[in-house]
Amino acid sequence: MAQLDIAEVFNAAKVLNDVARHPKLIGVTKINPEAEVYLKPENLQRTGSFKLRGAYYKISQLSEEEKAKGVIACSAGNHAQGVALGASHAGIKSLICLPAGAPLSKIEATKALGAEVCLVPGVYDDAYRKAIELQKEHGYTFVHPFDDPLVIAGQGTIGLEIIEEMPDVEAVIVPVGGGGLISGVAFTIKTIKPDVKVYGVQAEGAPSMVKSLAEGDRVNLDAVSTIADGIAVKQPGVNTYEMCSKYVDEIVTVSDDEIAAAILALLEQQKLVSEGAGAVSVAAAMFDKVPIKGKKVVCLVSGGNIDVTSLNRVITRGLVKSGRDCTIVLNLSDKPGQLSKVCNVIGDLGANILSVEHQRNHANTQIVGCRLSVELETRNPEHVEIIKNGLREAGFEVVE
Q: Which positions ≥6 away from 330 have C-beta within 8 Å?
C-alpha cells in the first residue's frame, strides 16, 4: 500500500481552493427522526460529483513530461468529467474509457469538457482493462478513479471541510464503490479527530468492499447489478482496501428500493437531485443500517448525475418503498355493485385510486369470481395496512 500523509490532503485543499466548490452542510434534515442528520451535497460540485477533487489534484501534480503525453482514465461517468475538466485546465489531452452502458448524460458531459471518449462493452472493470491496454500502447499517464494516493488525498479534502464546518460531528456516512472517497474522508477525519465514526455504504448488488473486508482479502465479484451505477465496482483497490480496513468503522449495504426511496426523499424534502450512488448514504441513515441514534451525523451525497430517462422509474420505486404508491389485489364475487363498494371503502379511508384492473378468468379465482387489482396513492405503509384491514372488515378477500 502506498503511504499517504495528512500534509498531502492540506496541499490538495490549497490546489482545489479556487477550482472545486465547497458546498455547505444542509440540515438538520428529517432523514432520520432519531438522529441529527446533515447533508454534504457534493452533487452540487462543478461536474455534479466529488470526483472532480481527486482527478484535478492528481493531474495538477504531474510532471511536464507526463503532461505532454496526456492522460487516460476509466470511469462509470463521474470520474471521467473530473479528469476531462482537470486536463482541459492543464491544456493536455485526455482519453476516457467508459462502460458502453454509462448514462448518455455522463458521456455527453465528458465530451463537452474536452475529453475523447472510448466506449467499452461491459461495466467499469471492463473499461479499466481497456484503459490499461491503451495506456501501455501510447504512454499516457493513467489517472485511477480511486486507487491512487493523490486521488485519495483530493477526496480527503471533503473530510477537512466537514470538520471545519462541524467540529462536533460524531459520525459521517460515505458511499463506497472502489473506495477512493471513503479512504480519503476516513483517513482525514480519523487523523484529525479519531473519535468520529466513519461508516461506508454499498449497494446490495455490488458489495465488493463489504465482502473483501469480511474475507480478509480483496474479492473480485463475478457480476454487479444496481441502480447505483457510480459504485458498481467488482473489486476494490489495493490502497483503498487497506485504508478501509484501517480507518473505516463499518461498511453496510442497502437495496435498490431503499436507494430509490432515498433519492425521492432528497428530491422532495431537500430539492436535491441525487444519483443512486450519491443517495446510498442517505438510504443507510433512513433505514437504520448504521448506529446513529442520538448522534450528530453527516451523510455525504456524492453525486447528482442521474440519467433523466431513468428518474421516473426510480421515483416510482421510491414511492412504492415509502408506502406512497401501492397495488392491492382482491378476489371478488362477480356480481353488480362489488367494484362500487371497494371504491367506497378506499375513498372513505383517504386513498386515491390511480388505476383499476379487472380479470374474470384468473386461474386463482372461483368460476363465479373475479380478481381486482387497484393501484392507490397512499400516505405511508401504515396507511396501506389501514386500507387492507378496512377492506377485510367490509368482507373482501385481500390477496396481497
A: 342, 371, 372, 374, 391, 396, 397, 398, 399
